Amino acid sequence: MAFDYLFKRIMREMLPSCDSKPEEVGDLPLKIDAVARCKAGPPKAMMIPLLERSFSKENILEYKSSVDKRRKENLSKLLGYVGLYCDQHDIGIDEIRARLTAWYITAKRPRFIDTLVQANMIMPAGEPGIYEVKDVFPCPCRVVVCDEMAVNDANIPLLLLGSGEAIKAAIRHLARAGPELRHAMETIISLIYLFYYDEVKDMTEMDDLLPPKVRESMKHAIEAVGLEEMIEEIGIDRVIEAAGIDKVEAALAKARAKQKSKKSK
Question: What is the pLDDT of residues 84-101, one digit of tens each?
Answer without folding.
Answer: 999 999 999 999 999 999
